[in-house]
């Protein structure tokens, strides 16, 4: 477990010892800011720490909600991480990558031009310029609260589905998308079925 403070201080608990497929949890000591940008900076510090101190060259990522938003911005905003830490499998749970589009919209690529989210447009350019030369698998998992087909109650599907537009520039990315019915934003990381599915994605277990 790694904790990171707003000033960038890091401390850890537990052992790593170069274990294959070790499980590492990242926690922010304070994440109640008005935006997710301070957490992007803190997470970048953590990822650099993992790479430099533990020489991690290839990782899987599981992230819920803004945790995924922060990760993709941290990784895409760092040429060093792109050059020294490869992604393998990325599992996003209810992660918004674009936050200006209405939940009444269905995904279409042309919505890139309708977006007024400056953070999304920055990410779009960073993804386009990413010199990706190896395969990556991205799993975009969403929930639909009871009675709705467009939102998990907190994040509209369209704001997660715009991830398709980001990965389109890279043929080596295999994109998977799944919506769990009658599942709220909170339940995405609590329901046993979903946790088992994630375990199967990462480790091939049922």
General description of the model:
This protein has 206 residues and is of the alpha/beta class. The chain contains seven helices and seven strands. The chain has helices spanning 37-54, 66-76, 79-84, 118-129, 157-161, 163-167, 192-203, and strands spanning 2-4, 10-12, 26-28, 58-64, 86-93, 136-144, 173-181. The protein has a four-stranded parallel β-sheet with strand order 4-5-6-7, sandwiched between helices. Strands 2-1-3 form a three-stranded mixed β-sheet, covered by helices on one side. Helix 4 links the parallel strand 5 (86-93) and strand 6. Helix 1 (37-54) packs across helix 2 (66-76).
Write the layout of secondary structure elements.
Layout: E1 2-4, E2 10-12, E3 26-28, H1 37-54, E4 58-64, H2 66-76, H3 79-84, E5 86-93, H4 118-129, E6 136-144, H5 157-161, H6 163-167, E7 173-181, H7 192-203
Parallel strand pairs: 1-3, 4-5, 5-6, 6-7
Antiparallel strand pairs: 1-2
Helix pairs in contact: 1-2
- Whole-number total of structural domains: 1
Number of helices: 7
- Specify the structural class: alpha/beta
* Strand content bin: 15-25%
> Segments where pLDDT lies below 50 for 5+ residues?
none
Biggest sheet: strands side by side, in what order? 4-5-6-7
- Rg value: 17 Å
CATH superfamily label: Alpha/Beta hydrolase fold, catalytic domain
Q: Note the gap between the termini.
A: 25 Å
Strands, count? 7
Provide mean pLDDT, rounded.
Answer: 95
Helix content: 25-40%
For the largest beta-sheet, the strand count, sense and barrel status come to:
4 strands, parallel
What would CATH call the architecture? 3-Layer(aba) Sandwich
Q: What series of H and E elements makes up the topology?
A: EEEHEHHEHEHHEH
Under CATH, the topology can be stated as: Rossmann fold
Classified by CATH, the class is: Alpha Beta
Shape: globular
């Amino acid at each position: 477990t790694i904790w990171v403070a707003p000033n960038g201080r890091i401390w850890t608990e537990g052992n790593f010892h170069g274990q294959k497929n070790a499980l590492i949890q990242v926690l922010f000591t304070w994440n109640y800011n008005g935006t997710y940008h301070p957490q992007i900076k803190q997470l970048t510090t953590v990822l650099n720490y993992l790479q430099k101190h533990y020489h991690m060259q290839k990782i899987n990522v599981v992230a819920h909600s803004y945790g995924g938003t922060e990760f993709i911005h941290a990784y895409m905003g760092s040429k060093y991480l792109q050059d020294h830490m490869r992604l393998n499998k990325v599992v996003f749970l209810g992660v918004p990558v674009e936050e200006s589009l209405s939940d009444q919209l269905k995904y279409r690529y042309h919505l890139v031009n309708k977006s007024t989210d400056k953070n999304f447009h920055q990410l779009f350019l960073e993804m386009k310029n990413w010199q990706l030369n190896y395969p990556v698998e991205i799993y975009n998992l969403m929930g639909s609260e009871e009675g709705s087909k467009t939102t998990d109650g907190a994040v509209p599907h369209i704001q997660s589905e715009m991830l398709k537009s980001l990965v389109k520039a890279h043929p080596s990315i295999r994109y998977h998308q799944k919506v769990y019915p009658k599942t709220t934003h909170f339940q995405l990381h609590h329901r046993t079925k979903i946790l088992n599915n994630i375990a199967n994605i990462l480790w091939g277990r049922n």
